[in-house]
Specification:
single chain, 125 residues, alpha+beta, 4-stranded antiparallel β-sheet, two-stranded antiparallel ribbon, 26% helix, globular
């Protein structure tokens, strides 16, 4: 059994779990470092220099914001994916990759298939 970390909301997570931190799905990565105990790795962007290292749990508590919700149900992740498809920060490829990794059954075909997801479509042009 792998070591777990208690998130500020009380959820216990291991490196296998995906959780919502600052409105993005992350995984826990334990570090063998003198300065940091663990890092949070963004599910799609992990190992790209966007991982967030923490020296200890207290540092995570200090950075935990209101849009960090911890573990989500399958329905919660599906709702998050629905919101991400309408969010200009996320491209279609990123959302598709996240959907494949998240613990949910999400069907992107329920979206409007006439939309390419581009800025013109989002503006209704």
């Amino acid at each position: 059994m792998s070591e777990t970390l208690e998130l500020p909301n009380g959820d216990e997570v291991s490196p296998d779990d995906v959780f919502l931190y600052n409105d993005y799905p992350y995984r826990l990565v334990w570090l063998d470092s003198e300065t940091h105990a663990f890092e949070l790795s963004p599910l799609y962007w992990g190992d790209s220099g966007m991982d967030i290292p923490f020296r200890d749990r207290e540092a995570l508590v200090d950075q935990w914001e209101s849009d960090s919700r911890g573990l989500l149900s399958a329905e919660g992740w599906a709702d998050w994916l629905d919101d991400a498809t309408a969010d200009p920060r996320f491209g279609e490829e990123e959302v598709a990759e996240l959907a494949a990794e998240l613990p949910t059954e999400w069907d992107p075909s329920e979206r409007d298939s006439s939309s390419t997801g581009g800025l013109r479509d989002k503006l209704g042009l």
